[in-house]
Amino acid sequence: MEVEGYLSREKRVVWRDIAGEVVIVEEDGTTVHMLNKTASHIWNLADGTRRPDDISHELCQRFEVTPAQAQAETERFCRQLTEAGLAILSPTPGTA
């Protein structure tokens, strides 16, 4: 199943990029997510102006991965983010 829409971070989470790796703290203050470099790159691009296809293209530019690998990784992580309530997919572009 293809993930569609424009990916943006939920405004209710607090996050910081520390040396290229993102740490996300959920609203409750007790749940923390530490992202690896690839996931952190996706998170940083989740500003509401890019679709998962755009993000996977940028992953190919940044990391040595095939387009199929980048697309699979991006779609998997987008699903994880939206299921966890950390990001949303909107039908129209916006800004995070």
Kindly describe this structure.
With 96 residues, this protein is α+β, with helices and mostly antiparallel strands. The protein is 39% helix and 22% strand. It has a 3-stranded antiparallel sheet with strand order 2-3-4, covered by helices on one side. A two-stranded antiparallel ribbon has the order 1-5. Helix 2 crosses helix 3. The longest helix has 17 residues. The relative contact order is 0.26. The model has no long low-confidence stretch (mean pLDDT 92).
Labels describing this entry:
96 residues; alpha+beta; 3-stranded antiparallel sheet; two-stranded antiparallel sheet; 3 helices; 39% helix; globular
Topology record:
Blueprint: E1 6-9, E2 14-18, E3 21-25, E4 32-34, H1 37-45, H2 52-62, H3 67-83, E5 87-90
Antiparallel strand pairs: 1-5, 2-3, 3-4
Helix pairs in contact: 2-3
Strand content: 15-25%
* Estimated helix fraction: 25-40%
- Which strands sit side by side, in order, in the main sheet? 2-3-4
Outline the biggest β-sheet.
3 strands, antiparallel
Structural shape: globular
Number of helices: 3
Secondary-structure element pattern, one letter each: EEEEHHHE
Distance between the termini: 25 Å
Low-pLDDT residue intervals, each spanning 5 or more residues:
none
Number of strands: 5
What does the radius of gyration come to? 13 Å
What's the average pLDDT? 92
SSE-based structural type? alpha+beta
Gist?
The protein has 96 residues and is an alpha+beta fold. It contains three helices and five strands, in the order E-E-E-E-H-H-H-E.
